[in-house]
Write a structure and sequence with these properties.
By secondary structure, the chain is α+β, with helices and mostly antiparallel strands. 27% of the residues lie in helices and 27% in strands. The two termini are 39 Å apart.
C-alpha cells in the first residue's frame, strides 16, 4: 500500500488530439485515478526496440481500455531511436510521457529494491495500475504479455459493435493488403473450413509462443481438428480491425471477435495476428494468431495461440476443446 501511495506523486504529460490543441497538460497518477489505467515500462533503447511492435500493434486497444502507457528510458534514448513512426502513430492518445524521468526511475528502484533477483538497474521492468491506482501486475526481466494483460485487467471501456469498420488509412496500401489477408484467414476459420487453404495462409514456422505451451505439457490440436464443423467458430464475425505495419516484411493486425452466441452481455474476444514475408515482393504469410476473451466487466479465463501446426489453449478451468474453452 505504501508503494502504491508513493506512485501517486508520479507525474506524466498527457497525450492530446493535435487537431484541437498542441498544449499537453500534466497530471499526477493520483489525479488520473478513476480516469485512466496505467502501464509503465522501464528499459533501455534495445529493450524498447524489442517491445515497440507489440505495444504499437495494440495501440487502439489501449485507448479503448482507457489505459495510458508510460515508457521510462534508463539511457536517455528517445521514441525516434526506438523506431517510432509519427505518421503511422498519429496522436498516440495511449502514450503519456514522464515529466520527470528520474522520479520514475527512483520509484522503479523502490519497487524492486527488495527483490533478490535484481542485480543491476538495466533489466526491463514494468508495473500496471487499475483505475483505483492499485497495483494489478508487474514484472522484471521480460516484457509484459500485453494481450493476456488486456484480457485479465485492461478490458474495454468503450462500446464496440460488430458493425464497427476497420481502421485502415486509405493511403497505406500495405495495410490494406494485411486487411485482405486477415479476411481470408477468418473466412477459412469461420466459414469454409478448408484445410489446404489454411495451410497456405500460414508460414511453415513453429512459433516460440506455441512451443512454450507444448513444452510445459500443453496439448496442441492440429488444424484438421480445429476446422471440423463442431470445433471451429462458425458464423463468428469480426469488427474494428486495426493494422500496424512495422516494416516492409513485418506487420500486425488486431480485431474484435463476436461469436454468434455472444448475447447481450457481449462475450467478445480480442485477436491479434503477426504477418511476415521474405521480401516486399512476396505474399504475406500468417506467423501467429492469438485470441483472448475481452469484454467489459469480465476477466479472461483462457487464451489461445495458433501457428501452422494448430492451436494450443491455456485455460484456468478443466481441459476443453480448443475453441470451446474460449468461445463456447
Amino acid at each position: 500500500m505504501e508503494k502504491e501511495l508513493n506512485a501517486e506523486s508520479l507525474e506524466v504529460k498527457l497525450p492530446v488530439n493535435k487537431a484541437i490543441t498542441s498544449m499537453r497538460p500534466t497530471a499526477t497518477l493520483k489525479e488520473l485515478k478513476s480516469k485512466r489505467r496505467i502501464v509503465a515500462l522501464r528499459g533501455n533503447k534495445d529493450q524498447f526496440i524489442e517491445v515497440m511492435d507489440m505495444l504499437c500493434s495494440l495501440r487502439r486497444r489501449f485507448v479503448q481500455s482507457q489505459t495510458l502507457l508510460v515508457l521510462v528510458p534508463t539511457d536517455g534514448s528517445t521514441k525516434e531511436e526506438w523506431g517510432w513512426d509519427d505518421k503511422q502513430m498519429g496522436d498516440s492518445l495511449w502514450l503519456a510521457d514522464a515529466t520527470n524521468i528520474g522520479q520514475f526511475l527512483d520509484y522503479f528502484q523502490e519497487l524492486l529494491g527488495s527483490d533478490e533477483r535484481v542485480s543491476n538497474d538495466n533489466e526491463l521492468a514494468w508495473f500496471a495500475l487499475n483505475f483505483k491506482g492499485r497495483s494489478i501486475a508487474s514484472g522484471l526481466g521480460e516484457a509484459p504479455k500485453i494481450l493476456e494483460l488486456m484480457g485479465q485487467q485492461l478490458q474495454p471501456m468503450e462500446l464496440i459493435d460488430d458493425t464497427d469498420a476497420a481502421v485502415v488509412p486509405a493511403d497505406m496500401p500495405v495495410a490494406n493488403e494485411i486487411l485482405e489477408c486477415q479476411k481470408k484467414f477468418y473466412n477459412v476459420l469461420t466459414s469454409t473450413g478448408d484445410l489446404e487453404a489454411m495451410k497456405a495462409i500460414f508460414t511453415d514456422g513453429k512459433m516460440q509462443e506455441v512451443n512454450e505451451v507444448i513444452g510445459a505439457g500443453g496439448r496442441i490440436d492440429g488444424w484438421v481438428e480445429c476446422l471440423k464443423p463442431d470445433a471451429r467458430p462458425a458464423n463468428m464475425v469480426i469488427a474494428d480491425q486495426d493494422i500496424f505495419v512495422s516494416s516492409p516484411t513485418l506487420a500486425y493486425s488486431t480485431c474484435v471477435e463476436f461469436p454468434p452466441n455472444a448475447g447481450i452481455d457481449g462475450a467478445t474476444l480480442l485477436a491479434s495476428q503477426r504477418w511476415v514475408r521474405e521480401t516486399a515482393n512476396d505474399d504475406w504469410k500468417l506467423e501467429l494468431h492469438q485470441t483472448i476473451p475481452w469484454a467489459a466487466g469480465t476477466r479472461a479465463g483462457g487464451t489461445l495461440r495458433c501457428d501452422c501446426r494448430g492451436c494450443v489453449a491455456l485455460t484456468s478451468s478443466q481441459e476443453k476443446r480448443t475453441f470451446g474453452g474460449l468461445i463456447g
